[in-house]
Write a structure and sequence with these properties.
By secondary structure, the chain is α+β, with helices and mostly antiparallel strands. Helix content is about 40%, strand content about 15%.
């Protein structure tokens, strides 16, 4: 049970709440020491990173400083617990962590954590006291909620002021959500108590996990350590058998943030939960009551979200582009297994009335293959290439004039399927080059000769198109086989391998040493250029990207592997009419300038970007109410204007949360339609040229 003896003023409510956590074991400080298996794992991880990692890793003073910085920010990302004197003390060791790692000495990491734990206890005790304040929301002051790029505060007095404003902001958010004073105190007491109890439950394995990941990610962002518990969750995600919502989550400050929506999962099929949304409360099993999860450990949030198939789950989220002030929205989902069939490629046709051109569309959520069925020799096993081949055949029978491969949100998958798919559009030749840690370059070729679809081709991408998607898009661009449209892609051009550390340790005991995910190679295009860091830059870039930071994808990692190049492979680009690309670009600019829907999207993105850049919010209630009303009105107006263009009824104030609009699958895909218009601009001149040629021959 948590020790409250140092709390001078504490509400009866908080004491009662804490009593409910009596079954939670508080880890004694004396147990926060490195175990023998941690030392052994450190030695092995260091050997792997310095010997087999793609990046030539040297454990030196430079890396030492980066590890310390990384570790401190992992513990206190928002700089709300440590004071500057702590940091000064820690920095006396900034050039010695490398030496400690070489000796498998983890004592400093544990000493830092003990101080961190003490600081969390101090802050939470203060917050629990502040809950009982009578706040005046007519005072003109602001709360700086995003301190990630700030310095640590000088003293405890300044931390107290920061936390007073934090509590005041939390109270105001709940007031604006319609909660009364009693419920506000109850919710916040639970929230802060959870932060404290979670911290007090962290054991030596958790400390080791945090530190060793600070070490691993200091080498390169896709390198990481999986503790035994995290390894189990990793296995579940790889099998796609988790009965939940189908979303990849991460801890971001004290929030649980959506990293990726898994194709075929409940969240994907519902369509309302989005990347970068922050989950702030979750319904309990068999209960309508929402549990506040701000400050929870990620593992615990995941456990709460998981549940039996066909059970109902409610999530309260802060949508992407909305500040911590809200408004939030509640999404109701039905838990289910990932439906692999929903990840299948699918097709549709867009007709261009003005020209009579028909554009086929193949949407590809991921590069998939049923490896088990393939290994068993089943003749009808499912794969991307097999499904797309059938879809192309069907679309061809529908007399399409051009084809769009939609890779938006496609985070990659099977390399072999990316090779197969690329081969559908080129006759033969290399597709991608792979360079390993020794510098050896291997070339992956088109596995078959011949072209499945020879017609006009466009590839639609966005910032979430990564890995295998980038290999396909890059090859199509290098061969000049089609036009790339959309946003600059993610920029992940590296290959990872997961190593089971237990394989390398002769230990007859029951200890589990976890696993290490490490980068072993890098992909390069046939042109010799890498997709790493820079991504695939579209031939026609949607202007939405102009309003967004470069702080996305691989470019958001400070220590990402840089862009690089190797010698080009021998390949023969197609004789694509590149000059027509420029004409299409001009026509695109003219068209979107007069396209209301496109301009609405650009303005919406611009506003969300502006919101995301905010670091402070007003603590004046009237200002916050005005801002919330303005946000809700802008959202409703956006939805209604889009619905008007589609001929759908408007959303009114009687439609709570505009849930109907968000779920409406009939809303037009403006970006896809514009891609079809671009491809139409490429097809029409070619058709006219062909007609003129026929006339001359006659």
């Amino acid at each position: 049970m948590i020790n409250f003896k140092n709390i001078t003023i504490f509400s009866l409510l908080a004491l009662i709440l804490s009593a409910s956590n009596a079954n939670v074991r508080v880890v004694p400080v004396s147990e926060l020491e490195a175990l023998d298996r941690h030392n052994k794992a450190t030695e092995l991880i260091t050997h792997i990173l310095t010997t087999y990692h793609y990046k030539k890793t040297i454990v030196n003073d430079e890396l030492s400083r980066y590890i310390l910085k990384n570790y401190l920010e992992n513990l206190d990302q928002n700089k709300a617990y440590f004071v500057n004197s702590d940091i000064v003390k820690f920095n006396t060791h900034k050039n010695s962590i490398d030496d400690a790692i070489k000796e498998s000495d983890l004592s400093l990491a544990f000493e830092i954590f003990k101080i961190y734990r003490k600081r969390v206890e101090e802050r939470i005790n203060f917050a629990l006291k502040v809950i009982n304040y009578e706040f005046d929301f007519d005072i003109d002051e602001s709360f700086r909620f995003d301190r990630r790029n700030d310095n640590w505060l000088d003293n405890t007095k300044k931390l107290d002021e920061l936390w007073r404003k934090r509590v005041k902001n939390d109270v105001l958010n709940l007031r604006l959500a319609g909660k009364d004073n009693e419920n506000i105190k109850k919710t916040l007491a639970e929230r802060y108590d959870r932060i404290l109890s979670t911290t007090m439950q962290l054991d030596s394995n958790d400390v080791f996990q945090t530190f060793i990941n600070a070490y691993a990610t200091s080498v390169e962002p896709h390198t990481s350590y999986f503790s035994p518990r995290i390894s189990e969750n990793f296995d579940i995600s790889m099998r796609l058998s988790l009965e939940g919502i189908g979303a990849v989550l991460r801890a971001e400050s004290e929030y649980t943030q959506v990293v990726r929506i898994i194709a075929g999962g409940p969240a994907d099929l519902d369509g309302r939960l989005a990347t970068d949304d922050r989950i702030i409360s979750v319904s309990r099993e068999n209960s309508e009551e929402m549990t506040d999860v701000i400050g929870w450990r990620l593992d615990d949030v995941v456990d709460l979200i998981r549940g039996p198939k066909n059970t109902i789950l409610k999530l309260e989220v802060l949508p992407k582009g909305v500040g911590v002030e809200g408004p939030s929205k509640v999404i109701t989902l039905t838990r289910d297994k990932i439906k692999l069939e929903e990840q299948d490629a699918s097709s549709s046709i867009i007709d261009i009335p003005e020209t009579g051109i028909r554009i086929g569309v193949i949407e590809l959520p991921t590069f998939y293959v049923d490896f088990a069925a393939q290994a068993e020799g089943q003749s009808d096993y499912k794969s991307t290439s097999r499904d797309v081949k059938k879809l192309i055949s069907s679309l061809t029978e529908e007399n399409i004039d051009g084809l769009i491969i939609d890779l938006r949100g496609n985070g990659g998958g099977s390399l072999s399927e990316a090779l197969q798919l690329t081969g559908f559009f080129i006759d033969e030749g290399p597709i991608v080059q792979t360079k390993d840690a020794t510098g050896k370059v291997e070339i992956n070729y088109d596995p078959r000769s011949g072209i499945i679809y020879p017609g006009p081709l466009a590839v639609l991408v966005d910032r979430n198109s990564a890995s295998a998607s980038e290999i396909f898009a890059g090859a199509i661009q290098d061969y000049r086989r089609g036009i790339i449209i959309g946003e600059t892609t993610f920029g992940k051009g590296t290959v990872q391998n997961v190593i089971d550390l237990n394989r390398f340790i002769n230990d007859d005991g029951d200890d589990d040493y976890g696993r290490l995910k490490t980068t072993i190679a890098q992909f390069f295009r046939v042109s010799g250029s890498s997709n790493q860091y820079k991504g695939v830059i579209p031939d026609i870039k949607f202007p939405a990207v102009e309003y967004l930071n470069d702080d996305i994808g691989e470019r958001s990692y400070k220590n990402a592997l840089p862009w690089d190049k190797v010698n080009p492979a021998k390949y023969s680009p197609a004789n694509a009419p590149i000059e027509i690309f420029e004409i299409a670009k001009i026509e695109h600019q003219k068209r979107i300038k007069n396209n209301k829907l496109f301009q609405l999207i650009l303005n919406d993105i611009k506003q969300k970007q502006k919101n995301s850049e905010k670091k402070e919010i007003s603590l004046l209630e009237k200002v916050r109410m005005q801002e919330r009303k303005k946000t809700e009105e802008a959202k409703k107006n956006m939805e209604n204007m889009m619905r008007k263009e589609k001929g759908l009824p408007e959303i009114t104030d009687s439609d709570p949360g505009s849930e109907k609009a968000e779920k409406d699958e009939d809303l037009v895909d403006v970006l896809l339609n514009e891609a079809a218009e671009i491809l139409n601009d490429l097809i029409v001149p070619q058709k006219e040229t062909n007609v003129q040629t026929v006339h001359k021959l006659n």
